[in-house]
Amino acid sequence: MTVKIPEKFEAFRQMVLDPANEAMFVSYLKEYSAGGRYTGAYFGELTTRTGSDPNRVDIADLMSLSLLQVRLNLDAIEYFLDESTLVELQKHLSAEPDRDLADLTADEAVELESGPLNDAWSLISRPKRVGETRTAKLLARKRPRLIPIWDSRIQKMLGLKSTSDYWTIFHAALTENDSALDKRLGELATEAEVAERYSRLRVLDILAWMHGSQPSGTANA
Fold this sequence. Notes:
- By secondary structure, the chain is mainly α.
- 57% of the residues lie in helices and 0% in strands.
- The longest helix is centred in the last third of the chain and has 26 residues, at 166-191.
- The two termini are 27 Å apart.
- 37% of the residues are buried.
């Protein structure tokens, strides 16, 4: 299966790969990771005293969404904390361990779209007002190296039409030309001293989100 990278995504990929833009992207990572008004800096770090089980959704996972400017209503929170929901989600999550998306083969990336994490997506999106953004962010919280965050700014910045096949699109962008983008993201993270804090996939999300927030961000991309 040949995956077409959207033009805006490819343009942004080339921007990240261009050494001339290194200082700008490193500054984005440093600014974002410092926190302050960027509460999303702590999205993956909010946890309970006992820590977070990667295969089980807990209250810290649900509350962490507010750090990315989305919230769940009471009905949705009760749904996610119901034991039957927790058990079913745990079954799907346990079947697909976290690993770097760029390490998957093209065939494995395609299989991801119809595998256990797709079942988890369907389960998460079941309550009212839990749409694509909340679903993607909660799933990315549990699988930060494997599942890309989705929101309207990322969608616009990277020219994504919908969440259909967006995991394979991210995979294609990361692995094109001997995984050049994935390697570059690691280099930028190291330079910004956030490599131990954020996955390379999360670094890509931060860079796209930060660039898209600049007055000329979408024009440049």
